[in-house]
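Hi X.,

You mentioned you wanted examples for the new student's onboarding notes, showing what a folding record looks like when two proteins sit in one file. Here is a clean example. The first protein comes first, with its sequence line followed by its structure tokens.
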Amino acid sequence: MRKRDRSSSSTPVHRPATPVVTPQPVHDSHEFTVQQQILFDVLRRTSLAEQKDKEIFEWLTDAAVWLKDCGNNKNFSPGSLAELRFLILGVLQTLPWWRVFDWNHVQGVRVTGRNGRQHSIRALTRWHERIQIAFERVCLLLMEQSQHAVRGVMEVAMKPFKMRSPVVDGALRLIPGDTIM
């Protein structure tokens, strides 16, 4: 084995690294604005109409987190918060209500119409509790943050009561495979 020659250069000494405190970058607020704009653009293009139960539940859970976090974030201006609430309400308008509610015939109750026909009474019942609870959480956060959002929340919440039942003649509707019963 051959011995290695020594060089006359000095060996570099590893000094302990001193913690370097860097000031906050100037582009931080710019990055925040870009992220906020991306969120708003995604919300503008989001529709719950074609999503599965799990995806709807996850979106509602995320919306509750966005409302909480953005409400506590000092970088969000009041106008941005109002726009966020407006966009979330817009997405809630696309919620397929048959995933949350279902019309059921009340057993043994019939009503006679003016023309003498017998009609059964239908009742609106809750169908999917996890989505219902997540929906209520988002609605409560919206109303808690702004009095102006109350009207929009009430319009969204009362939507199934304004709509006609998708099946009037009592025919059975196929239930999607991803629906939890």
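Then the second protein repeats the pattern, sequence line and then tokens:
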Amino acid sequence: MLVPGMPLSRFTILDLTRVRAGPTCVRQLADWELMLSR
């Protein structure tokens, strides 16, 4: 659900991580309403 007022909703993240911290960081960004592509 995209809310027009969310400051990070216009960004898209391409997740290419395989290390331990990568998925955790990307999950946090997804919680902040960024579009996520894996």
